[in-house]
Amino acid sequence: MPMPAFKRILLKLSGEALMGDQGFGIDPGMIQYVAEQIQSVHELGVEMAIVVGGGNIFRGVAASSFGMDRSSADHMGMLATVINSLALQDALERIGVQTRVQSAISMHEVAEPYILRRAIRHLEKGRVVIFAAGTGNPYFTTDTAAVLRAKEIHAEILLKATKVDGIYDSDPMTNPDAKRLDSITYREALEKQLRVMDLTAISLAMDNKLPLSVLLLKQAGNILGVVCGEMIGTRINH
Fold first, then answer.
1. How far apart are the first and last CA of the chain?
2. Tens of pLDDT, residues 57-68
3. From 136's CA, which of 3, 12, 178, 215 has a CA 20 to 30 Å away?
4. CA 7, CA 3: separation in Å to the nearest integer?
5. CATH number for 147
6. Global pTM?
């Protein structure tokens, strides 16, 4: 059995990742795949928290661009993350991984309230904890929420599993000669405005010395590989 390089991690999943090849919503096959990737890490005894986006259902920034009040739009986006979190919890528990959803917006019938000490206790007991509803505040992305929660629970690294296999020196969609970077500093990511992660989130990670790893979700074993110390995707640190 491989040996993990980290004891406690936070995994950030984009809402779009749960769509699979659909244009909207949740793909049952994809959420099953994601649950199995998480299970492979959990079986190593790694304490694992997760933040899921809501872009597959509703994206507040996009809605505000056509006239909706930004606060209202962002609150709708937070509710979308709760839907995704509950779907992921169900997929994980169906394969035997004990999971708790904690929401930054109170909704006691479907999720626990976010209480830091309770979250840490769940992690210590071997449960996966999914943090829903972002920070509970408008104008903050789920990327920023992921960095915030990672620091609060003292995670050693934040993994962003997304639809690209790392960070490139230019846009690979428009430049066929773009090169993937194995590592980059926080400052370089900010100066070049590399949009693979929200700039506020990168700045918060830099201020608090939280290592970030950007990797391709659809490549089976990538999450496990990074947790076991392999250089997969792109690492962002000092």
1. 31
2. 987 667 666 788
3. 215
4. 10
5. 3.40.1160.10
6. 0.94
